[in-house]
Amino acid sequence: MAVQQLHFQKGKREGAAAMRNLLIVTAISLLMLSCSGKPKSSPDFLYGSRYYNVYMENYLKGEPKVAESYFYKAEAQFRRVDSLCNLSRLYLGRYVLEEGQEDAAVLEMAKKYAALGQCQEEAESVLYLSGQAHDRDKLPEPFRTISGATPEKLASAAESSKFDDVTKTRLLRKAAIDYIMDSPALSEELAEKALAIDKYHGWSLNLLRDLIIIKNARIRQGKNAEDIITRIELVKSVMVKK
Question: Tell me, what's the pLDDT at 22?
Fold first, then answer.
């Protein structure tokens, strides 16, 4: 999504109620994209989804302790109803959100639940995320789109309306990182687009990630990055440590 489009849509999505509705509609974002035939809209699924969304929001806003409690509430809800594929996706979503600090034990839990529930898409996702051979056609979105994608395709995918904002900013950062050595100006531009989205949602952790990319891209261009360094420290100063 272009920055101009983002600003245009911003007015349509203002207000706390609209944000809550958006989170419910995009329940279990990133990996909570259930396979066809699964009870996506059952009450138990919705309860677990809402817990996950509260976890995600607090995690990205730099509130890890609050986030952790809601993650385990989501896990308990899905365990209560023997929803093994959703449990696997829950851990896959957590692994992806960690972005750059991925915990192998988290991916192992996703693998465990996928095997127990014979969840094909989730098992393929584990293979993909662990860098092993996988069947691209069996991957869920967004992995199917980004598997083996060039930085150009990642940036293009970030404009697709089929992805939520969490996924879009992650794709923009991935493309920005891929471009940083050979095209630092483009890297900075893509990170700025991610920054605009993350600012709107108040996702402090993602803001920090965006600003670090912008800082490094500016340094690669020989540009002054002192203002970005100051902004990084300001964000860090108000984030809750684990």
Answer: 33
